[in-house]
Automatic annotation (TrEMBL):
Keywords for this protein: ATP-binding, Nucleotide-binding, Transport
CDD domains the record matches: ABC_NikE_OppD_transporters
InterPro entries: AAA+_ATPase (IPR003593), ABC_transp_ATP-bind (IPR050319), ABC_transporter-like_ATP-bd (IPR003439), ABC_transporter-like_CS (IPR017871), Oligopep_ABC_C (IPR013563), P-loop_NTPase (IPR027417)
Stored PROSITE patterns: ABC_TRANSPORTER_1, ABC_TRANSPORTER_2
SUPFAM superfamilies in the cross-refs: P-loop containing nucleoside triphosphate hydrolases (SSF52540)
UniProt GO BP: peptide transport; transmembrane transport
Name of this chain's protein: Peptide ABC transporter ATPase
PANTHER family named among the record's database cross-references: D,D-DIPEPTIDE TRANSPORT ATP-BINDING PROTEIN DDPF-RELATED (PTHR43776:SF7), TRANSPORT ATP-BINDING PROTEIN (PTHR43776)
Presence of the UniProt keyword Mitochondrion in the record: no
GO terms assigned for molecular function: ATP binding; ATP hydrolysis activity
Amino acid sequence: MSELRFENVTVRYGTGRRALRAVDGVSLTVPPGQVVGLVGESGSGKSTLARAAVGLAPLASGRVLLGGQDVVHRARGGGHRPLQMVFQDPYASLDPRMRVGDSVAEAIPRTGPSDGAGRRAEVARLFDLVGLDAGHALSRPAELSGGQRQRVALARALAGRPSVVVADEITSALDVSVQGTVLNLVRDLQRRMHLGMLFISHNLAVVRYVSDVVAVMYLGRIVECGPAHDVLADPQHPYTRELLAAAPQRDGSAWADTGQGEGAVTEVDPPDPHHVPAGCRFHPRCPVGPLVRPDRAECLTLDPTPGSAGRVHGAACHFAADRLPPPGTAR
Ligand SMILES: Nc1ncnc2c1ncn2[C@@H]1O[C@H](COP(=O)(O)OP(=O)(O)OP(=O)(O)O)[C@@H](O)[C@H]1O
């Protein structure tokens, strides 16, 4: 059982005037066997943080630790791979020319079964685990549905016998009708195998369904973090409140990501990571900040420190403790 920990992680892209910090000093912990849901609108840096975890985005500073060991310096031998990533588009992560059974077999570590029969049995076990008919092993990715391909991608990830899985928008590219089934499968596997998971989604209903801890990201920062129930039922950061107000309410299609239901805050004036505002980076959009409360001048100059990186509920807002009134009522 390993804990995944981001310590003050910064990722920069570009140079000179085009330089931006996609992730800006993020600390976040994924406790063993728990799901940390990461939400935030497009461009907030969620994918970059995920990629940083598996070494696909270069760290400008900070560290990513798995079980206390720096992931960058972990031996990349043929042993089991304790940190695995599953992407939004399973097509992109599967070789189109390979039979999917071979793709999964390829991901079995060298410390696993080495003879043909043993490896075939392991592939069959993994297919069974993700609810795929063994007959599909001979198919190419193009012959499968999107949901089946995502199951193959999951089987590949599980072949490494991970203790932590980073899942980046793994249901959002799927047909609405299969999103719920794949999500249920992932949650079921996570519980049965006691996997730690960093689960990224812009869909709050999905995050609500799977997460033990919720972290909210805005312009490269975690602005609120804590136990899922606390963050979602009693949000402290005005941005979280706006996200929640904009999210579709729970109904029969609670998981369905139809691309609708993104509300005002996510449409108006999207933040530009090339020009991060001084002070609190949310202040130009804050419904309870200096725009409407001129007395709250510290928001213009003081960068609020993140309140929490894990299980304690906290928010990076100078007035979080003030029990801010809901958006729209503060005037
Ligand atoms: N390879 C790259 N080079 C330059 N800028 C990048 C690169 N990847 C991401 N960015 C920028 O970094 C910021 C964060 O992007 P990122 O994809 O991490 O956000 P996100 O929250 O995952 O959004 P989405 O949900 O749209 O993927 C964005 O402004 C994006 O344009």
